[in-house]
C-alpha cells in the first residue's frame, strides 16, 4: 500500500515512520515546501539511526525503511492508495488540501485526516469521496492508540478498513463517534489548559505543577511538559474547537496559553514554550 502523508511536521514525520516501518507499505511524505518535507525526513533518519545505534534494528533494515519514503510536494501522490492529512488544525486548510488531492490521487484513494478535534463530516463537505478520521498520538511512531472516526457520510467499511490498517502498522484502534476533541483530547486538553491556569495563578511553579501530577496521579509526564511536546498552538486550536462546538465557557482557552502562542513560543518544536529547550 502506498500512503501519502500530507504535512511533515511533528505528527507527519512520526506517522510516515510508522507506515514505512511496516512491511508492504511505502510512503510519500509531503509538505508545502520541499525543504519542510526534507526536514520531516531528517527527523525520521535521526530516529532510525537511534534504533540502529541501540541495535533494535539492523543498519540494512534501517536503510530499507528510509528507502521506502519519497519526499516532495503533494503532486508526488499520484500512485497513493491512502492519504493521511497531517497539516494544521484549521478546517479551511484541511478542506483545501483534500480538494487539491482530488485532482492528484487515484479515484479510489482513501482520504483520512489526523485532525485532533475537527468534524470529519465538515472536512468532507464538497469533496468527491468520504473522509475518515485516523487520529494518531504523539510521538506517532511509538504511541499505540489510533482513534478511528467516521463522519456522517463515512461508510462503515471505510472505518473498518482504517482499523485494519491501524492494526497492520502495530497500533490499537478505538472507534470513536464524531464529537469535539473525540475522546482523548476532550479529556486531556482541558486538563492541560487547567494546568496552565494553575501555573499562571502562581499556585506552583511549572516544575511543581508537573511533579505534582506525575507523583500525585501517576501520570508518566506532567501536563505542562506534555503541552510543550504536543505544541502549544495545537493545544490552543483544540481548546478553541471544543469551546466553539460545545458553547460551554468551562472550555475557554487559558489566557497564558494564548499569550505564549501569540509570542511564537509553541513548545519543543520552536525551542521554547512553557519550558526552554535551548
Ligand atoms: N501535535 C500533536 O501532538 C498532535 C497529535 C495528534 C494530532 N495532531 C494533529 O495533526 C495535525 C498536524 O499537527 P502537528 O503537530 O504535526 O503540526 P506541525 O505544525 O508540527 O506540522 C504541520 C505541518 O503541516 C505543514 N502544512 C501546512 N499547510 C500545509 C499544506 N497545505 N499542505 C501540506 N503541508 C502543510 C506545515 O508546513 C508543517 O510542516 C493537526 O491537525 C493536529 O491537530 C497533532
Automatic annotation (TrEMBL):
3-hydroxyacyl-CoA dehydrogenase C-terminal domain: residues covered: 181-277
Residues the record marks as site: Important for catalytic activity: 135
Domain 3-hydroxyacyl-CoA dehydrogenase NAD binding per the UniProt entry, residue ranges: 3-178
Classification lineage: Bacteria, Bacillati, Bacillota, Clostridia, Lachnospirales
Entry's family note: Belongs to the 3-hydroxyacyl-CoA dehydrogenase family.
Name listed for the protein in its UniProt record: 3-hydroxybutyryl-CoA dehydrogenase
One function term, GO molecular function aspect: 3-hydroxybutyryl-CoA dehydrogenase activity
Record-level GO BP terms: fatty acid beta-oxidation
Keyword Ribonucleoprotein in record: no
PANTHER family for this protein: 3-HYDROXYACYL-COA DEHYDROGENASE FAMILY PROTEIN, 3-HYDROXYBUTYRYL-COA DEHYDROGENASE
Keyword line: NAD, Oxidoreductase
Species per Swiss-Prot/TrEMBL record: Lachnoanaerobaculum saburreum
A Pfam family the protein falls into: 3HCDH
Amino-acid positions noted as binding NAD(+) in the UniProt annotation, renumbered to this chain: 7-12, 31, 89, 94, 116, 138, 269
Pathway(s) where this gene product acts: Lipid metabolism; butanoate metabolism
Amino acid at each position: 500500500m502506498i500512503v501519502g502523508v500530507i504535512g511533515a511536521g511533528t505528527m507527519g514525520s512520526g506517522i510516515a515512520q510508522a507506515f514505512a516501518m511496516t512491511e508492504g507499505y511505502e510512503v510519500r511524505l509531503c509538505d508545502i515546501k520541499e525543504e519542510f518535507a526534507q526536514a520531516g525526513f531528517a527527523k525520521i533518519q535521526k530516529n532510525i539511526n537511534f534504533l540502529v545505534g541501540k541495535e533494535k534494528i539492523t543498519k540494512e533494515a534501517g536503510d530499507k525503511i528510509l528507502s521506502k519514503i519519497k519526499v516532495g510536494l503533494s503532486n508526488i501522490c499520484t500512485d497513493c492508495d491512502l492519504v493521511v492529512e497531517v497539516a494544521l488544525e484549521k478546517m479551511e486548510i484541511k478542506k483545501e488540501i483534500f480538494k487539491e488531492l482530488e485532482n492528484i490521487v487515484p479515484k479510489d484513494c482513501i482520504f483520512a485526516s489526523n485532525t485532533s478535534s475537527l468534524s470529519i463530516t465538515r472536512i468532507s463537505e464538497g469533496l468527491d469521496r468520504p473522509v475518515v478520521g485516523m487520529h494518531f498520538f504523539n510521538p506517532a511512531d511509538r504511541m499505540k492508540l489510533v482513534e478511528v472516526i467516521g463522519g456522517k457520510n463515512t461508510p462503515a467499511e471505510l472505518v473498518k478498513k482504517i482499523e485494519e490498517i491501524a492494526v497492520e502498522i502495530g497500533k490499537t484502534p478505538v472507534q470513536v463517534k464524531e464529537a469535539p476533541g473525540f475522546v482523548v483530547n476532550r479529556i486531556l486538553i482541558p486538563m492541560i489548559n487547567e494546568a496552565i491556569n494553575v501555573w499562571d495563578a502562581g499556585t506552583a511553579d511549572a516544575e511543581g505543577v508537573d511533579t505534582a501530577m506525575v507523583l500525585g496521579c501517576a501520570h508518566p509526564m506532567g501536563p505542562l511538559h506534555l503541552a510543550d511536546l504536543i505544541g502549544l498552538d495545537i493545544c490552543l486550536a483544540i481548546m478553541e474547537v471544543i469551546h466553539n462546538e460545545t458553547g460551554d465557557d468551562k472550555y475557554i482557552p487559558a489566557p497564558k496559553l494564548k499569550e505564549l502562542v501569540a509570542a511564537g513560543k509553541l513548545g519543543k518544536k520552536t525551542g521554547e514554550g512553557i519550558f526552554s529547550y535551548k
